[in-house]
Specification:
The structure holds 3 protein chains of 3 kinds. Chain A has a single domain, classed as ABC transporter involved in vitamin B12 uptake, BtuC, CATH 1.10.3470. Chain A contains 11 helices and 2 strands; from the N terminus they run ααααββααααααα. By secondary structure, chain B is of the alpha/beta class. Chain B has 2 domains: 217 residues, Response regulator (Rossmann fold), CATH 3.40.50.2300; 157 residues, Rossmann fold. In chain B, the strands form 4 sheets. In chain B, strands 2-1-3-4-5 form a 5-stranded parallel beta sheet, sandwiched between helices. A 4-stranded parallel beta sheet of chain B has the order 7-6-8-9, with helices on both faces. A 3-stranded antiparallel beta sheet of chain B has the order 10-14-15. Chain B is globular. The relative contact order of chain B is 0.15. Chain C is globular, with a radius of gyration of 20 Å. Classes of the chains: A mainly alpha, B alpha/beta, C mainly alpha. Chains in contact: A-B, A-C, B-C. Chains B and C meet through strand 2, helix 3, helix 4 and helix 6 of B and helix 2 of C.
């Protein structure tokens, strides 16, 4: 069959594997967006910028403080998450009672500011970040760099842990309850505003984590978030706004689809996701995994 | 042509005698990328280079009134043409300087000719500026797509890199670079096995690199620029392309890109440039001053080109006596041989092409580099007479009609 | 003063300023403001009165400018015909996009429009006639009706002003017609409008097409003014820019979009010297508006004026101690 369309099976599998690596980033990023949207009803346009900040946090930790990659993987998300918490407390907080649109617009403005400041400071050529896991595995059909393998593993672990935390633990059930009836949950003696703040911080930290994860294979540059945010939006919408599981599965799935497109029609690889999004929205507006309202 | 040159000469003398007592007013507009993909290799550095040229020319001592304005075109032709239109219409700008990004430069090129001003191109790559889109008001200083393709493509084919696969940014500039290089490769007996076009700007190059690997070509030609090139080179290193026996050819590469990639991954890359800061003492001194004013970065060839073109432009105004008539000033620029500390002696051809030597560089291995920004070995000099597209091949209309 | 009177006075004041302005200010800059003001007015019709946030309006603005550019440059039509043809193309595009998009509401509507616009962007990048990254350059301004030379900035300015005025009045008429009243009813409570027997989807679709058409008219005019049609006009950032203009000026107000485009275009024009700081400043403005002045400039002015009127009417006997709380009931 593969011979018929002129693609050797090896190249086919190789592209699928690479698609999975990309999907790993989409999954972690869209997961963060979905957590924030699902629990706060905020469409976090800043997510791409926070992803970029994660990568830069890793870069700064390394060059200024000598913190190696593995340390940055823990520290950078905490730093980015903390900045996120400041944003939530000082700005986003005042918009919860309004239409979703305002959260989107505020975060859109913040993107301009954050990316502008980083550009001002670091220029746009980007900074190199050394690969912590050089070398690779010969899988028979391709040479897979070790680091990309690690990306897949790390993202699966983080995604699973987050899903477990929110869907299966007591803390998660409080969170979900707080979304439905904040007044009731508050009445049970749980501090809802603090919970909301921490949730936003957590979602943002996920973006920061993805940023550090991306640093060694994508040049650390102020523009890196700009390029990816729209795609991740589409992933979240296809998965179903606010659906945790939907965001994760769709992330990997679309990575694979994009990989396939690169084999057959490379020029369209940045558009295929939007085509899928439009189709999904027409057939199943709540998204593949969303609940119909 | 001769009679026109003579006419310019005469009017120049007439004007000079008329205005020598007066101060000369010149206003330069540096239009460049201050916030985008090319901000590091042009941007504020180009503004600095313009000011430096004015200072070195001694404008103040001569009692001239030279002003510099600058703007960010965001790599958008519409933004660029809006700014330049306003500069010409209301701000009395006499010359536009730099203008990276071919699409913006083409837009500015048209406006400049329309308003009879001067366009000193350093940042833009497209060879059309002195070819199908040439005007009597434009001087293209530093490099162009033809020179890059010719320099790099030829050198690599001649040293045995005969089969090529292109990784091309999917827009006009990428296509042009691919087209020019393919022509050179085939002319010198090589062959092009295939090409893959990636979206601009691209985020992930791994699958394209894999396709290039699958092609079995000896050389993977990167017909893209800036961040895309940086990304592609890094990805190639990760997948062990070079260890597996294939080589990369970056068709447009700047020292700031090498700085971004790091020597570990960039080592061994071969490419063509017009200028390198570590070639001699004069360049080094220029670079040191530049670095002090620009966050420690070294100047790119574009910055050097901005400096030289502005300097030569001012000399031409001194000849003509006024910056008013753009075509006359450009004619004088072509008349006077060029001579400055960064590009040495050279000339500007009738079609506006500045002619000078080009150089083939190779990126050093990390252990060969003795310090920050010590990145290049010079592999060859491409002599001026063969470095650029021959005049008759460009299809520049006003040159053809004048002859 | 009644609402109608106030609007009439404001409109007359605007016309006087618009007619006098080119004698003091740079006409091309003013024309840019007019093009974007028309674009924002068209967008405002959909968002401010229809309650639909489109994140893909660049598709109509940029699409029309491509078609107009191609028609004027390659087919050599005169500017008014090229603009008409480009606008018609935008209308068709609006009909197709609207047909798909209006089936969804809220944030999904925004996402569908964004998706469609991204697909159109891809088309613009790939289609041979758009010139890819170079865009269509050197679009001739031509002769209006074959007589008046449009290379003259003044002549062109009044042509653009006429187009703008036509578009503005048309949109104003739509808003204040029975159709507009139904539209507002749908915005406030769609189920109720349906139960009253209105085919809300038809209303939304018609509004969407009108909005797209005038966004197209603005884009087509811009192509003639700047003699260039480029990818910038179809990028998602352009869709964001028109949201910003509408928001800064005041969405759901008649003059808000005009004020917003004056502010933003002026900022872009006169801050260009600050280089990379322009975008940062623009972002800060965005944030401040969303946090503190959600009604936008015109919206805040109207609110301030209304408060003063009310205070006057309440009479002097009651001294008002508390400053009126900022209204929290925002409606989109």
């Amino acid at each position: 069959m593969f011979e018929l369309i002129g693609i050797p099976p090896q190249a086919f599998y190789a592209q699928l594997t690479l698609g999975l690596v990309n999907g790993a980033f989409y999954a972690v990023l869209s997961l963060g967006l979905a957590v924030i949207f699902g629990l706060l009803n905020v469409i976090n346009f800043t997510h791409g910028a926070q992803y970029m900040m994660g990568a830069f946090a890793g870069y700064i930790l390394l060059t200024l403080f000598g913190v190696p990659y593995w340390g940055a993987l823990i520290l950078a998300p905490i730093i980015v998450g903390a900045i996120g918490i400041v944003i939530e407390r000082t700005m986003l907080r005042h918009l919860y009672h309004l239409d979703h649109l305002y959260g989107l617009l505020l975060t859109f403005g913040l993107v301009l500011v954050i990316e502008g400041l980083f550009r001002q400071q670091y220029g746009v050529s980007g900074r190199p970040y050394p690969n912590p896991l050089p070398g690779g595995q010969n899988l028979g059909f391709m040479f897979l760099p070790n680091y990309r393998l690690w990306v897949i593993v790390a993202s699966v672990v983080v995604c699973f842990a987050t899903w477990y935390l929110i869907e299966q633990t007591r803390l998660g059930s409080y969170l979900r309850a707080a979304v439905e009836r904040p007044d009731l949950v508050q009445a049970f003696g749980i501090n809802v505003p603090v919970m909301v703040t921490l949730t936003y911080g957590f979602g943002v930290a996920l973006a920061g984590f993805a940023g550090v994860l991306a640093a060694p294979i994508q040049v650390v540059s102020p523009m890196m978030g700009m390029n990816i945010i729209i795609v991740v939006f589409a992933v979240v919408v296809i998965g179903g706004m606010g659906s945790i599981l939907g965001a994760i599965i769709t992330g990997y799935f679309l990575g694979l689809v994009e990989g396939l497109t690169r084999v057959f029609y490379p020029e369209a690889s940045s558009t295929v996701i939007f085509v899928i999004m439009a189709i999904v929205l027409l057939i199943r507006p709540q998204g593949l995994f969303g609940k119909a309202k | 042509m001769v009679s026109r040159k003579l006419l310019y000469g005469l009017s120049a003398i007439a004007l000079m005698s008329a205005t020598s007592a007066h101060a000369i007013d010149v206003k330069l507009g540096v239009l460049t990328d201050m916030s985008g993909l090319y901000a590091d290799l042009t941007g504020q550095g180009s503004v600095w280079a313009t000011r430096k040229a004015i200072e070195d020319f001694g404008a103040e001592e001569k009692g001239w009134n030279v002003e510099v304005v600058f703007a960010d075109h965001q790599n958008r032709p519409d933004v660029g043409s809006t700014v330049v239109r306003q500069w010409f219409d209301t701000d009395d700008v006499d010359a536009v300087v730099d203008v990276p990004t071919s699409s913006v430069a083409l837009a500015v090129n048209e406006l400049t000719a329309d308003r009879n001003k001067v366009f000193l191109v350093s940042g833009a790559a497209t060879a059309d500026l002195t070819g199908s889109a040439c005007t009597p008001n434009t001087v293209h200083w530093t490099y162009d797509t033809w020179a890059l393709a010719n320099g790099t493509g030829r050198a690599i084919v001649e040293t045995g890199g005969e089969s090529w696969f292109f990784l091309t940014a999917d827009y006009a500039f990428g296509h042009a670079l691919e087209r020019d290089t393919s022509a050179v490769v085939e002319e010198f007996g090589g062959q092009v096995l295939g090409t893959v076009r990636h979206p601009f700007p691209g985020t992930d190059f791994s699958s394209f690199i894999l396709q290039a690997q699958g092609s079995g070509a000896q050389i993977i030609g990167l017909a893209n620029a800036g961040g895309d090139t940086v990304n592609a080179v890094n990805t190639a290193a990760e997948f062990g392309i070079v260890q597996a026996g294939q080589n990369l050819a970056a068709l447009l590469m700047f020292i700031t890109d090498v700085h971004a990639i790091g020597l570990e991954n960039a080592q061994g890359l071969i490419f063509t440039e017009a200028w390198y800061w570590d070639q001699n003492d004069v360049n080094r001194e220029f670079a040191a001053e530049f670095a002090e004013a620009n966050r420690g970065n070294k100047p790119t060839m574009i910055h050097a080109g901005v400096y030289s073109s502005v300097l030569h432009y001012l000399k031409a105004i001194e000849e003509v006596g006024s910056a008013e008539d753009g075509a006359a000033v450009v004619a004088a620029m072509k008349e006077i041989p060029t001579d400055d500390k960064l590009f040495g002696e050279g000339m500007i051809r009738e079609d506006g092409r500045k002619i000078h030597d080009m150089y083939l560089f190779e990126v050093k291995a990390p252990d060969e580099s003795t310090g920050d920004w010590d990145y290049y070995h010079q592999r060859a000099v491409i002599p001026a007479d063969g470095a650029f597209r021959p005049l008759e091949d460009g299809g520049c209309e006003f040159v053809a009609s004048a002859n | 003063m009644t609402m109608q009177n106030r609007t009439l006075i404001a409109f007359l004041a605007f016309m006087v300023i618009a007619i006098v302005a080119p004698f003091f200010l740079y006409p091309v800059y003013l024309m840019k403001i007019l093009c974007f003001a028309l674009f924002a007015c068209a967008f405002n019709l959909l968002l401010g009165y229809g309650g639909l946030l489109s994140f893909g309006h660049a598709m109509f603005f940029g699409g029309a400018s491509y078609f107009t550019g191609h028609i004027a440059k390659v087919w050599g039509w005169s500017p008014e015909l090229a603009i008409l043809a480009g606008t018609a193309c935008a209308a068709v595009l609006g009909l197709v996009a609207g047909f798909i998009a209006i089936r969804r509401v809220g944030i999904y509507f925004a996402m569908v429009t964004l998706a469609l616009a991204q697909m159109f962007f891809f088309f613009s990048l790939q289609a041979p006639f758009t010139g890819g990254e170079d865009g269509i350059q050197g679009i001739p301004r031509g002769h209006l009706f074959g007589i008046i030379n449009m290379r003259n900035d003044m002549a062109l300015y009044f042509f653009v002003l006429a187009i703008f005025t036509f578009g503005f009045l048309f949109i104003y008429r739509v808003i204040h017609s029975p159709f507009g009243q139904v539209l507002k009813a749908i915005r406030e409570n769609e189920p109720r409008a349906i139960s009253l027997g209105y085919k809300t989807d038809n209303y939304k679709l018609i509004t969407f097409v009108i909005s797209a058409t005038f966004a197209g008219l603005a884009g087509a005019t811009k192509a003639i003014v700047f003699q260039i049609a480029s990818l910038t006009d179809v990028m998602w950032q352009m869709s964001g820019e028109v949201v910003l203009m509408t928001l800064v000026g005041g969405m759901g107000t008649i003059f808000g979009p005009i004020v917003g485009s004056v502010v933003i275009v002026t900022m872009q024009n006169y801050l260009a010297g600050f280089g990379e700081w322009v975008l940062i400043i623009q972002g800060v403005v965005f944030v401040i508006v969303v946090l503190a002045f959600r009604k936008g400039i015109v919206g805040e002015l109207i609110a301030w004026y209304d408060r003063r009127e009310r205070r006057k009417q309440a009479g002097e006997e009651v001294e008002i101690v508390h400053a009126p709380a900022t209204a929290k009931a925002e409606h989109l």
